[in-house]
């Protein structure tokens, strides 16, 4: 059988890069989807050193057709998608009185809408046992008003994960949002590697007692 494969959407140097490395350590091949060629290229050597075959594409995930095409190509090339990890969100430092409707909708297109795009594209390559994981945030429950759209994104994407999980569960595919209840840091409980470990653990659970949200509090 071919090796399992993970697609990391919103690939970058933080949590998403750590997630890619964590799954590579477990024998997964990795497909990286992101906006910055140099950032993606920087991730590749560390993944290959862990034995992973790496595919990559530079795509704006709010471009629905381009994102769909990239994810479908990943699935066709690997012959399977076992895990789809979704990481993107937009940080816009505006409070609710300064934030415009068009800005809010633009941010939601990235932080929520793009999840629909990539899941729908990945679904034909996913089978029973497949997992969808999302980097969640405490901003969903306790938003900072100075970046009001971020809390709306994180609340929205968590809600969408609940719906995806219910929709896909009859086919044995489960979805989970991992709510990170702390600020990312270079040391301590909230390093990208520690958060990635929590995401790995959430994805690796058995279906018995499955929940579509897991909190990581360090």
TrEMBL record:
This is Short-chain dehydrogenase. It comes from Nocardioides furvisabuli. The lineage of its organism: Bacteria, Bacillati, Actinomycetota, Actinomycetes, Propionibacteriales.
